[in-house]
Specification:
Helix content: 25-40%
Number of helices: 8
Number of strands: 10
Order of helices and strands: HHEHEEHEEHEHEEEHEH
Strand content: 15-25%
CATH superfamily of the largest domain: SPOUT methyltransferase, trefoil knot domain
Strand order of the largest sheet: 7-6-5-9-8-10
CATH class of the largest domain: Alpha Beta
Distance between the termini: 63 Å
Shape: elongated
CATH architecture of the largest domain: 3-Layer(aba) Sandwich
CATH topology of the largest domain: Alpha/beta knot
Length: 238
């Protein structure tokens, strides 16, 4: 007989339902999958509502079966442990520039953008698109969600900073970015930024691509411009 909670256990079933956005919205909870993400959360002081593990030697975890781990995981190669946490409630910080992820539909790309923003000292505002607190977005962020503020917004007016729209052509060079707190708007690969978002921005930036590529992945564009913002801040402070 397999040791540990089974895949049919009510606690496992309740946790597995957190892969649905409706369940995350209803409960305010989400899932962390794998040792790296769980450790990142632990180091950041995140409390676990539940902690499930295959390792019977972990005194803080509830032991589960392999089948239960597969039920909890959204990957082809599930990793133990898996934690249930309350979704943190962040606020944008007045001293930080903000990466605004506009209608980014792929949760992995959104997670990568959050990781990039955290690395370069920006907060993140998510306007539509994928859920930033889904297990897939959290995996893409590799723990960055616990090292920067990540908020969901309904209106750009919620971000009180100078708006900078990224456009495919006719924008200024990234070197023209001004000083001060900026809200860097990055649109989806499929559609870019909508006209109303571009119209709201007094500054428009186009990343030069002399190699002839038509466009960049949203996460790649975010990395280039977040670095530019960070580099300017570092130069001014130095």
């Amino acid at each position: 007989m397999e040791a540990g909670l089974s895949a049919r256990n009510p606690r496992i079933q309740a946790a597995a339902r957190l892969h649905r956005s409706s369940e995350r919205d209803a409960t305010g909870l989400t899932l962390l999958e794998g040792p790296n993400l769980v450790e990142e959360a632990k180091q950041a002081g995140i409390a676990f509502v539940e902690l499930f593990s295959l390792d019977e030697s972990d005194p803080d975890a509830v032991r589960i079966s392999e089948a239960a781990l597969e039920r909890l995981s959204s990957t082809q190669t599930p990793q133990s442990p898996v934690a249930v946490i309350a979704i943190p409630r962040h606020r944008l910080r007045a001293e930080r520039s903000v990466l605004v992820a506009w209608e980014i539909s792929d949760p992995g790309n959104l997670g990568t953008m959050i990781r990039t923003a955290a690395a370069f000292g920006l907060d993140v505002a998510v306007r539509g698109g994928a859920d930033p607190w889904s297990p897939k977005s959290l995996r893409g962020g590799a723990g960055a969600h616990f090292h920067t503020s990540v908020v969901e917004i309904a209106d750009l007016a919620e971000v009180e900073a100078v708006k900078v729209a990224t456009v495919l052509e006719a924008g200024d060079s990234p070197s023209a970015l001004p000083d001060g707190r900026l809200a860097l708007l990055i649109g989806s690969e499929a559609h870019g930024l909508p006209p109303e978002a571009i119209a709201s921005a007094p500054i428009r930036i186009t990343i030069p691509m002399p190699g002839g590529t038509e466009s960049l992945n949203a996460a790649a564009a975010a990395a280039i411009l977040c670095y530019e913002i960070s580099n300017r801040r570092t130069s001014q402070n130095g």
